[in-house]
Amino acid sequence: QKDDSQRLLESFNCDEKEHTITKSKAEPYTSKEEILLEESESPLNSNITAFALKAKVIYPINQKFRPLADGSSNPSLHENPKQAVLPNQVMETSTSGSLGSLSQGDKEDCSSSTTIHSTTSDDRFQARAFLKVTSFPEVLTCESFDVKLCLCSLILKDLMLLDTELRKEKHVMFVQVLKIYLTDFCHKKKITDDLSKKILLVQEKDFEELQKQLDSRLQNTEMSGAHNSEYQTLEDLERKEREYSEHIIDNMEAFWKQTDKAQQAFLDQSKCSRAKATKIMMDLTEKMIAVESLLSESQDLQAMDIQERLFNWELMVKMINSLKSYIPEECKCSLNIVSNILDCLTVKNNLSVRQKEELLTDLHKAFWEQLAHFSNDCIQQSKDLISKQLECHAKKREEFKHRQKAEKESLLSKTFHIEEVHYFLKTYHDLLEKHRQAQWELEEEDDCKSTEIVADLYKELYSKASHTLAELVTELFLQTLPVVTGLSVRECEHLKMEWQENLVPQLEKWETRHQRRWKLFQEQLLQEKKLWIKEYALAAIMQKHLSDKQEKIIQGVISRLGCLSDESVNYILQKHRLLLCSVLTRLTLRRVGMAALARMRLSRKKSLLQELREQHTLQKGSSPCQDEDQWQLQKAVESHILEEEEKLEEETQQTHLEFHQQLVTEIQEALQFLQQHMEQVIGQILLQHARQEAGKRSSDDERDFKEQLVEAAVESVYATSNNINRLVQNYYQQLGKITEGYEGKKLQQLKSFQ
Fold it and tell me: Region annotation Disordered: residue ranges (predicted)?
């Protein structure tokens, strides 16, 4: 009674394809209470439901009943040829139509897709389990409504893999740059070869230990909350992504400390002058900035490719679902035409109502049983072929890895001079980029092959279903009807020809609808792409703003210090630029991941709203309004769609705001690490500066410091006790003022940093 929009659309042509949400048995996290809640949200006829339960008859809800000639009750098969859900078939029908439609036949109640049924709460949807997949081909055989969630989870997996590869690349590059400098010092006899190898070995072990700690923490995150290895929830996925980001930021801070420790160990062992040490540290920092720049650019390009891959996956999934939907639609057309022909025979008294119902029952039973057998075989074959395809892919991937490992080792074994550091970095990065591109192309090729395999199987299923139905209808018209009705074979042949002639325009009509539906889907995908590009541009602006703000802060700090040399100032700026680039690179990838999570959270309502728009557009195009009632009805539906769009827009903004606040929190945490690290760097430089100034003063004075004290004591022999006490009091007063001033400046600096 509350949902007026349901009744508004019930008078629409119920031949429209619609969306029925049924809870999947394959979802172990959904309780029976939740299923009942979800069912209670649909505007179902409770009287029909109660009758079906009391009679212990499995009839589809909202099924029309027609009494037979003997007074018994049976579904009107010629109007609603529905069947029970068959084993191994899709339990939840997707928006584009799926194999579940094969066993359900014509769906008479269009009202189920006219309103976006809100879940009891967003938390319920986030706690809903969906299949855990490791590759796109698995999604093609996924018997779940939540295909969008599966695809987005694969995107998150790709982003995590990219992050891991780039982090390892950065570690290797740093060690190799350090190795080049150590080799140069060995050639100049500043350190021994054994010492050089020892320093490198220690650093490699430290980085390995760092990686082990990260792997252990990530493993604990992966295992926590994993009740079932085959399924996952959006809530678990969001938690894992959040914890993963925290671990990576901690690891990034540890990497900074480790690189500083490695540089200091190298300089301590080389025993070079302070000026030379500063120059080397600046050179190393400059090289690492170049590394971060290469990795950041590569990450941005590959993150865009990963986003583009999601759109391609959606197109391939839509194509498979379109092939699936062909089968029930053609069957529906054929069976409805047969039913209409039998209705005409009933009107002419050639058939009784009971005979007609029995003929239709036999036809439906024979067809759906045969189709269930074909569809089960098709599903099993697709799973088997995809499994073989994945095995072949795994073998190819291992071959790629061995070949790529040999190429990397060959490059790393070569000797490079200091002048060739940039050349080495570019060459090594290009090699890994080449490897990643080859791996990417291999995966895309496998995705296309898998899609073609599944598409061919469903084309074959479509052919079998059409052929089977044609045989059954031919048998009905040419063998059964002449016996039951007493009509001649020629008359029955004319009836069959009438069925074929009426079928052609109906199929053409459905083909036109398919094309329009596909065009609407492409338009929707294009809108999502535009939205994604806009979000990417806004993120770039935000990143630029953050970078400029941090640059002003560090410039302000340096200007307040005011006593450092140009070399020290340049080193501080370089170090800050390096750490900031590392932070921004990490947070950029985190933002892309958050965008995928937001898309997952909104996917269900977006899909339902899109289907509502699609159904209304198709209905509007196929049957233009001819009277005032229909015009009012369409206006009401359009108003309802606008209302749902506003609700979705509000929820979208709320979701994006929530993720944005979370991202801001993580940015603040990362910048806090950066500030602490820069405080240590600046502190060390100030300490070195103080030592240099003290050294200059002592060298400028020819006399010993002890002699100065003796002279000062001789000059002050006339000092009295009162004068000394007054001097001490003045000293402590001045010291107190200095301390208060220092604390005030420190507080101001902390506020400016914040």
Answer: 93-118
